[in-house]
Write a structure and sequence with these properties.
Layout lengths: L5 H20 L12 H8 L3 H13 L3 E4 L3 E4 L8 H31 L2 H16 L4 H18 L3 H25 L5 H16 L2 H17 L3
Antiparallel strand pairs: 1-2
Helix pairs in contact: 1-3, 2-3, 4-6, 4-7, 4-8, 4-9, 5-6, 5-8, 6-7, 8-9
Length: about 220
């Protein structure tokens, strides 16, 4: 474990964290045990103290170690109970989906009541583009967001549109992360759900449009479990 540069140092810290986790799994240190000091660990691992600190920080973030000010570093768990980054990412995705539901279900209802002929053409065009872009993940997300934005615009409420547009960068990033977790996107049933939503807006059925929007987003949330 040697080398120069920030990328290599990060790699060294990752390796050091893996070695420490392996020793903890082997119960070299029991639950609640205090780890040796940074200098001792650095010598054992053949790395610098800064690398040891970063490795400890990583394992603390994953719930394996607990650093206590002035007392040292202690074993808080004998293994990683889950991929901690994935847990946090899923929690973030759920929050975004809940916010989408609040904005989009109301927008769908209003769109069904207020849509114009121009709005319906825009929604239909966006739906067609969405269907055509079902192979590349990021293109699919962009086409999907354009479709949902067309419905929000049809609600004729500038505050909802402003909220959606302000939310879009975070929303795009989160949807990409979600679909990478699920490793599947652009399926026939998913697209059919969007067609049903467009049909409800065109038919002027506010309750159905809101319900379909809510059900679609709830299915995304359920897919993370």
């Amino acid at each position: 474990m040697s080398g120069n540069g920030a990328v290599q140092r990060t790699s060294m810290a990752d390796q050091a964290a893996d070695v420490l986790l392996g020793r903890i799994r082997a119960e070299e240190w029991g639950l609640g045990a205090r780890l040796p000091g940074e200098t001792t660990l650095a010598a054992q691992l053949g790395v610098g103290r800064s690398t040891v600190r970063e490795a400890i920080r990583q394992l603390s973030g994953r719930g394996v170690l607990s650093a206590r000010q002035g007392a040292g570093v202690f074993v808080a768990a004998l293994d990683v109970r889950d991929d901690w980054d994935a847990v946090l990412q899923r929690a973030d995705i759920v929050s975004v989906i809940e916010a989408r539901t609040a904005i989009e279900s109301e927008a769908a209802a209003l769109a069904a009541e207020r849509r114009t002929a121009n709005d319906l053409r825009a929604i239909r065009r966006a739906l067609t583009v969405r269907e055509q872009r079902r192979s590349d993940l990021e293109e699919h997300i962009d086409a999907d967001l354009a479709f949902h934005r067309a419905i929000v615009v049809a609600a004729a409420n500038p505050i909802l549109t402003e909220l959606f547009d302000g939310f879009t960068p975070r929303l795009r990033q989160t949807m990409i992360a979600m679909l990478r977790i699920r490793s599947a996107f652009g399926g026939a049933e998913d697209h059919a759900a969007h067609e049903r939503l467009a049909d409800a807006v065109r038919a002027g059925d506010a309750a159905l449009a809101a319900g379909l929007s809510r059900a679609h987003l709830a299915s995304l949330k359920d897919g993370l479990r």
